[in-house]
Design goal:
Layout (H helix, E strand, L loop, with lengths): L1 H10 L2 E3 L2 E5 L5 E5 L5 E3 L5 H5 L9 E4 L2 H5 L1 H10 L7 E2 L10 H6 L4 E5 L10 H9 L3 E5 L5 H15 L3 H19 L9 H4 L2 E5 L10 E3 L5 H6 L3 E2 L9 E3 L2 H7 L3 E6 L21 H11 L9 H4 L3 E5 L8 H12 L9 H12 L9 E3 L2
Helix pairs in contact: 7-8, 8-14, 14-15
Length: 372
């Protein structure tokens, strides 16, 4: 832990009184103004990440993408209730990098733009957008909770702490994060002696109910890394080179994973209109969540999985895939894959502690559920 914080601190060295130099998650050396008052977000769902460090996470935000309210309406409503000013933040795009308006972003005169390595806003590949922003005097930094979430979450929080002048708060969350991750790591089966072959096989179904097609999944990145860390063998990992992709139903039925995990994009307010989606997140009850999972796994093909028949089917809040709260999801997955090793681990208590210490909105709802 101390070694990690020391390594991160070396990345965030001061250059002179008027500015600071740091290396962002894209490996770019960036000079950040000493005083940052106007912030632009490449994803609206970075607001909860800012809330780990800021008492008022929207106070400095002048512009953001509009995917927060589109894709996590219940979570957005929580922040709207606590910070009504979030509604007045200008939207500089909808839900994709292609919709980002660089002209509107520049017109907002931000000091700092915070983007992700990949996702729903501008990325390092958007070199023209970055060049235009920097030419207009906007400092651009990249963070990452999605591409390599477990490796890059502490690094991203350290970068945010540096650029926002919240180093102590960042260090506090990094310490919490590393402690909770270690509670999983120290109990995992050791490599070697054929241990890899004995790892439980897992299929992650991505965004259950978004379409009729089967079978969207996560592989090398996103929640695929949660399975890797928790000593599971993701059946998609060797077939899909990127973070996500699609497996055929025939392959899924042939491989017969031992554990099924569906990611939930449904919300209580729209459950009647989207009955194929699993409902989890803010405001969701365990009864509604389990009923929605039970419906989801009765679909053609999925119902034929041994994991479903044997009761090793689970669902988890989709938005953990791109959130610094992902440490909770790692603990949940570890319990699903190795229930005996982690019988006394309580991810719900970890989530309660995280919200009590680091989130300005109350913990409400259910964020994972078991079929049985």
């Amino acid at each position: 832990m101390r070694a990690l914080l020391l390594a991160l601190s070396l990345l965030l060295t001061a250059t002179h009184a008027a500015a600071r130099s740091l290396t962002d998650l894209a490996g770019r050396n960036v000079i950040v103004p000493a005083k940052v008052e106007r912030v632009l977000l490449g994803e609206g769902r970075f607001i909860p990440a800012l809330a780990l460090l800021e008492k008022d996470p929207v106070a400095r935000v002048v512009g953001m993408m509009g995917e927060f309210e589109r894709y996590d309406a219940a979570g957005y409503a929580q922040y709207k209730a606590a910070f009504p000013a979030i509604e007045r933040i200008a939207r500089v795009g909808r839900g994709s990098g292609e919709s980002f308006s660089v002209e509107q972003a520049i017109a907002l005169a931000p000091d700092l733009a915070i983007f992700g390595l990949e996702g729903h806003g501008p990325a390092p590949k958007d070199k023209d957008t970055i060049a235009r922003l920097e030419k207009a005097g906007v400092t651009v930094v990249f963070i990452d909770f999605r591409q390599e979430p477990l490796l890059n979450t502490p690094r991203s929080i350290a970068v945010l702490g540096a650029v926002l002048g919240r180093r102590a708060a960042a260090d506090a969350y990094i310490a919490f994060y590393e402690t909770e991750m270690a509670r999983v790591a120290q109990r995992l089966p050791k490599a070697g002696n054929g241990a890899g072959a004995a790892l439980p096989t897992v299929f992650i179904e991505n965004r259950v109910g978004l379409s009729d097609e089967c079978c969207q999944t996560m592989a090398n990145g996103m929640m695929g890394r949660f399975v890797d860390f928790a000593a599971g063998r993701n059946i998609a990992r060797d077939l899909i080179p990127g973070s996500f992709g699609t497996l055929s139903l025939e392959y899924l039925l042939t491989q017969q994973p031992q554990v099924y995990i569906g990611t939930a994009i449904g919300a209580p307010a729209t459950a009647d209109k989207t009955p194929r989606r699993i409902v989890l997140g803010a405001g969701a009850s365990e009864e509604i969540a389990r009923a929605s999972l039970a419906r989801a796994v009765q679909r053609r093909g999925i119902a034929e999985l041994n994991a479903v028949k044997q009761g090793r089917a689970h669902a988890i809040w989709h938005h953990f895939y791109n959130s610094p709260l992902n440490v909770v999801a790692v603990q949940v997955v570890a319990k699903w894959l190795h229930p005996e090793r982690f019988a006394d681990l309580d991810p719900q208590e970890t989530l309660r502690t995280l919200y009590a210490r680091f989130q300005p909105v109350p913990l409400s709802g259910v964020y994972w559920v078991d079929l049985k």
